[in-house]
Amino acid sequence: MELASKPTKWINLSFKRPSWWLILLILLLGVAGWLVCRQLTAVQMGQPTVGLTPLTELGSDTYHGAQGGLYPGGSNERPSAHKEAGVEIAKEIRPLASDGSVDEQNGKIGFVAVGMSNTSMEFEAFADQADEIPQLNPAVVLVDGAQHSKASQFVANPNDEYWSVLTERLTDAGLSDAQVQVVWLKNARARAKAPFPVDALLLKNDLRETITLLHERFPNLKIVYLSSRTYGGYATIDLNPEPHAYQSAFAVKWLIEEQIEGDAGLNFNSNNGSVTAPWLSWGPYLWADGIANEGSGFVWEQSDFSYDGTHTSPSGQAKVAGLLYYFLHTDETAVPWFLTTEETQ
C-alpha cells in the first residue's frame, strides 16, 4: 500500500500547479506548430496552373457558355468604330490649368490609378520608373489613387472613405479635379464566393458604379482603361482566389461591350445624347495560367506573389508595371497624350 500511494502522490504534486515556464513552453510550442502548419498549407495550396484558358487565347470558344476574347465576337481587337472614337478622344487630351482651361505651357494631364491594394502596389512600381520612360509627356502627372483594403464594393460606394483619401492624394500631387483626364481602373470583389457568372456580374456592377462616380467627379475625364486580376492559383487566403481571379475578366469584358453596344448609361459621345461616361477600353490583360506557358509566353511564378499568394511581390509588381508601360507606349489611344509629340511623329 505504501509503494502504491507514493507514485499517486508524486503525480498529483507534479501536475496540480504547473510552473509558469511550463505554461509558456506549451504556448510557444503551440504557436510554432501553427506557423509550421500554416506554411505547409500555403505550399500545398499553391497551384502552378489551374487549367483555364486566358481570354486572349479563348477567342470564340466559351467558358461556361461565355465567349472569350477581350471584345465582342471573341476578338482581342477593338471594333473599328470604337477604336476610331478612342483615338479621336485621345487627341483631345491636352494639358489643363486647374480650372480646366487648356494651358499648353503649364497645364497638367492627370493620370490616376483607381482600385485596390494590388493596383496601388503595381502602379507605384510603374510610377517609380517614370523618370526612365523615354519621351514621357512632361505634362502627365501620375497619381496612385488605389488604396489598400478597398475592393470594388467599397470604391463603388460614394460615401466610403476611399473618396476622401483620393482627394488628399490629388491635392498632394497638385492636381485639381478638372485636370484628371485618364484613369487606370483595376479592382475585384473581396471574398467573392458566388458561382459564375454571378460573381462576374456583381463585379461588373461595382465597376460600372465606380465609373459613374468618376464621371460625376472629374468633368474632363475622357478615358478609363480597365484591367482584371492577375493569376490567383497560388492564393492561400480567400480574398480572391481562382477561379474568381480568372472570371473577373468577364466583368471587364461585359462592361466594355455594354458601352460598345450603345448603353445610354455609358454614353461617351455627345452626338448620341447626354454624355454619361468616359470612353472605356481594355488596358493590359494581366492573367496567365501560372507557369503553363513557361518558355514560350507570359507566366506567373509563385515568387511573383507574397506569402498570401494574392498580393504581388516586387517581381510581380514589376511585371504588371512593364505590361502597363508597354500598353501606354504602343496603344493608339495612349500615345497621343502619354508621350511627347516628338515620339508620336
Helix content: 40-55%
- What is the strand tally? 7
N-end to C-end Cα span: 105 Å
Taken from the alpha-carbon principal axes, the silhouette is globular
Which H/E pattern describes the elements?
HHHEEHEHEHHEHEHEHHH
CATH architecture: 3-Layer(aba) Sandwich
Short description:
With 345 residues, the protein is an alpha/beta fold. The chain has twelve helices and seven strands.
What this model shows, in words?
The chain is of the alpha/beta class. It has a single domain (66-344), classed as SGNH hydrolase (Rossmann fold), CATH 3.40.50. It has helices at 2-16, 20-45, 55-58, 80-92, 117-128, 152-155, 162-172, 198-217, 244-260, 314-330, 335-338, 341-344, and strands at 62-63, 66-67, 109-115, 140-144, 180-186, 223-227, 279-282. The strands form two sheets. The protein has a five-stranded parallel beta sheet with strand order 4-3-5-6-7, sandwiched between helices. A two-stranded antiparallel ribbon has the order 1-2. The longest helix is centred in the N-terminal third of the chain and has 26 residues, at 20-45. The chain is globular and about 60 Å long. The model is unreliable at 1-16 and 31-44 (pLDDT under 50).
Relevant terms:
345 residues; alpha/beta; Rossmann fold; five-stranded parallel β-sheet; two-stranded antiparallel ribbon; 43% helix
Describe the secondary-structure layout.
Blueprint: H1 2-16, H2 20-45, H3 55-58, E1 62-63, E2 66-67, H4 80-92, E3 109-115, H5 117-128, E4 140-144, H6 152-155, H7 162-172, E5 180-186, H8 198-217, E6 223-227, H9 244-260, E7 279-282, H10 314-330, H11 335-338, H12 341-344
Parallel strand pairs: 3-4, 3-5, 5-6, 6-7
Antiparallel strand pairs: 1-2
Helix pairs in contact: 5-10, 8-9
